[in-house]
Write a structure and sequence with these properties.
single chain; alpha/beta; five-stranded parallel sheet; 46% helix; 13% strand; globular
């Protein structure tokens, strides 16, 4: 089996797929043969990314989703299953980080931004997982990947001591780069 066919027949949902790493995950999954549902709160950016994949000959669908809202995540999963027949893979990638880092310190951060961040970064993956699990159970197969960043280890703008602790904590938690089972390795050119 070649790398480009390892996910043929599988359906993947990627949240936060309108840009950045979510868009890259979507492209990698599509190149591995999966049909990809690009879910994002910004439907325009998800649509642009899906059209890009479709133009390259991949099966892709853009879906608007607010991962903070249970009804929205349920619609996302149902749309994926209706359009492609099932849901096999979920990449919980949607998250807020730039907005939080730009705020400065936890002691001065606006409480509404704090609550929104928790809703997107913590409740969102839970709701998306709940939405897809029934489809995965029905099929007897499912893979869920939860994306995070090293920023999760930092409580505020780091002082030199806090930054060292953050790196130590992170290196103990993940002593080596984690391998993913759904992303194909790039072929080296000769």
């Amino acid at each position: 089996m070649t790398d480009t066919a390892q996910l043929t027949g599988k359906v993947a949902i990627v949240t936060g797929a309108g840009g950045g790493i979510g868009r890259a995950y979507s492209r990698g999954l599509a190149e591995a043969g999966a049909a990809v549902v690009l879910a994002d709160v910004n439907l325009e950016s998800a649509t642009a990314a899906a059209e890009e994949l479709a133009a390259a000959g991949h099966r892709a669908l853009a879906v608007g989703v607010d991962v903070r809202d249970e009804a929205s995540t349920t619609r996302m999963a149902a749309t994926a299953a209706e359009h492609f027949g099932s849901v096999d893979i979920l990449v919980n990638n949607a998250g807020l980080m730039a907005e939080v880092v730009g705020e400065g310190s936890l002691t001065t951060m606006d409480i509404d931004l704090w609550n929104r961040t928790l809703a997107v970064n913590l409740t969102g993956p839970l709701l998306c997982t709940r939405a897809v699990v029934p489809y995965m159970k029905e099929r007897g197969y499912g893979k869920i990947a939860n994306q995070s960043s090293s920023g999760a280890f930092m409580a505020a703008r780091p002082t030199p001591t806090a930054a060292r602790r953050s790196r130590c904590t992170n290196s103990r938690a993940t002593p080596r780069r984690p391998r993913t089972t759904f992303m194909p390795r790039r072929q080296r050119s000769s």
